[in-house]
Design goal:
Helix content is 89%, strand content 0%. The chain is built from three helices and no strands.
Length: 81
């Protein structure tokens, strides 16, 4: 509620302090982060790449099957006409 009663000038004066506070809190939070080891990053990267290729192969097969089904269906309708 106090923020709403402040004038634009007061808010403008407090802006640099707010930015400084934000970066200080960001710096403290980044110190608490536990980063993965190189081995963990490599392992998860391999899993992601393998998964992408598996999904690509799956969608390639599904696309080919549906493409053939739709083509045969359209050919069947053309012959009836």
């Amino acid at each position: 509620m106090a923020e709403e009663t402040k004038s634009f000038g007061e808010k403008l004066w407090q802006w640099p302090a707010g930015i400084k506070n934000y970066f200080q809190e960001l710096q403290m939070e980044m110190r608490r982060v536990t980063w993965p080891s190189r081995k963990q990053v490599q392992a998860t990267t391999v899993v992601v790449i393998a998964t992408v290729f598996a999904f690509a192969a799956y969608f390639f097969v599904v696309d080919a099957v549906f493409s053939r089904l739709i083509t045969k269906l359209l050919q069947a309708f053309r012959q009836q006409s």
